[in-house]
Amino acid sequence: MKPSRPIEFANPQVSLCGSAALLFDAEGPMCLPTQERIWTLSKQVGQWDVVVDTQVGMNNLLVLFDSSKADPEALASRLLESWRKVEPGGPQGKLLEVGVVYGGDRGMDLGELAAHHGIDPETVVKLHSTPEYVVFAPSTTPGFGYLFGLDPRLFTPRRKVPVVRPFGGNVTIGGGQSNLGNPRGAGGPPTFPTGWYVIGHVPEAPVPFDLSRNPPNLLDVGDRIRFRVERIER
C-alpha cells in the first residue's frame, strides 16, 4: 500500500494511506535499535481505542484506525509524540538454526553473486553464514519474516528482469536483505520467478505456519535465524 497525500511533519514522517490508515516512517538508516522502538510503538498504539490494527514493516509502522472516531492529523501528532518517548530494547527472541547447502543446482546464483563482488564463493558463504539475522517484520509468507543482519559486503541489487529458479527452502539475497523461503508442499510449484539471487537451499526447511502449533507462526518479530553451512556444492 502506498501512502496518498503526506501529512507534513519533520522526520520521522507520517502519511495518510487512503481514508483509514496512517503510515509511520522512522528516521535514519535501518538498524536494530530503531526497529525495537517500532515494535514497542506498535504494542502501545494497538491499545488506543481509535486504532483497529497495526502492521510492523521495515523501518515503518502501518496504523489502521476507525475513521468514524479518529481525526487523522490528531492521530499523526499523537504517533509522533509517542515515538519521541519510546526507548529501544526488549527481550531477545528465540533462535532458529537451519542447515544450508550452498551452491549447486539449488543455489545456482552463488557464483554469479560472488563474481559481482569480486570474491570467491567460499567467501560469500562465510560472510553469509556468520551473522545472526533478526526478524524485523512479518513477510508476505505467514510465519516467516523480513530479516536484518546481512553483511553489507553482500548487498546486491535485485535483478531488473526476474529469472526462474527451483522452489523450496531457498536461501536468497536481494538488496540489503537475505531470506529463507517456504518448503515446497505437496502439489506446490516446482519453480518460481524471482529477482533475488538464490545462493543455496535448506533441505529440511521448517514449515513457517501451522495451525496445529501454538502459536501457529514459526517466527515472530525479534526472533533470530542462523544459517549453518552443511556443504558447498559446485
TrEMBL record:
Pfam families given in the database record: CT_C_D
One Gene Ontology molecular-function label: hydrolase activity
Keywords on record: ATP-binding, Hydrolase, Nucleotide-binding
Signal peptide (residue range): none
Record domain Carboxyltransferase: where: 12-219
Protein name: Carboxyltransferase domain-containing protein
